[in-house]
Amino acid sequence: MLWASARDGRRPDSQLLKEARHGLTWLDKMWDERTKTLYIQVGAGTGNVEETFVGDHDVWRLPEADDHDNAPGHQFLKNRPVFRAAAPGKPISPNLAGRTAAAFALAAQVEARTSPARARRHLETAAAIYAQAQTTDVQQLVTSLPFAFYPESNWRDDLELGAAELALAAQKLRDPRARGWLKAAQYWAGEYRTHEAGGDTFNLYDVSALAHADLIRAARADRRVPVDVKALKSDLAAQLEIGVKRAANDPFGAGAQYDNFDAVPHAFGLAATARLYRDATGDRRYDAFGAGQLSWTFGANPWGVSFMVGVGENSAGCPHHQISNIVDRPLTGAVVNGPNSADLFADGLGDNMDNMKPCPADGTDRYEEFTGRGSRYVDDVRSWQASEPADDFTAVAVYALTN
Question: CA 368 to CA 265: how far, in whole Å?
Fold first, then answer.
């Protein structure tokens, strides 16, 4: 939201910026500067095998109901646990350290001109978190609990991103540490290309496209640090070529794998990368491909559905979202996962949960006849596989739509 609302958008959006600042205030509460502790999650995602407690995904309810919930096994709904990324002062999982540092450093860039004192506070927070990143003997990355919810393997792109944003923020604030962070970003970009590149495109798990683009930006502002800009541009193009090759063999020109998780955010990610590549190189060869991926997400797909709720002539109508469903309030702008592997629906959708309002009312799957190529889309509140919206999905879309 900071990228889209204030830094890269041609028309800064004050409401979006306000929302971004609200989120940053929350994120700041998750960092205890005194004890050097980063907290990563509030609440338990799901219950345990022994069934002695349930989690947030297990009970369909409004959040205010938790305060008075004394049912057996609901103790972690009423009293939500807070999880930390590491013990106080200990090394933080590099993916979290890099991304969290990037958020505060980006905020420092946005605030540098109008509120330099606030910007410097954000820069120091970013620097402290980044300095605590674990960079050796990295094994199980910390994401969310349980790890199965969002299992991640990439982390060098996150360290590249954090260092690039720190360098840009320091350049804006005339901080002498800028060159050191620029060198760090170049190092981690090289490590990413050596160990992690080639398998994925911009999405929740791989943010190298953002990192490469901003490293190029930082390198242009200080040419005394040798940065392999040519290699960064080449890797942006290589990521786009992954999508281009898929699209060439798909009747609807899809660059994402729609028989797998996160097809829609991957499509938005490809659209964003096309613009990042154009801005970095001046080369417009991927413009049409990027526009095609946006078209695919907004309805030019086998199901004829816009996967952004409330946008387009025929958008997703039954998102798997507790509050929206219970209070019957539309989630305009929310992005759902979209089509997924047909195998995930082999056992059906199951019954409606307690307090869940059936949607569609008659339970009819009006897109069933379009199932094919190993993929299925179901617009049903029970369908977490295809109809669950997520912040990370929407965040990629917001940036992809930045003019």
Answer: 22
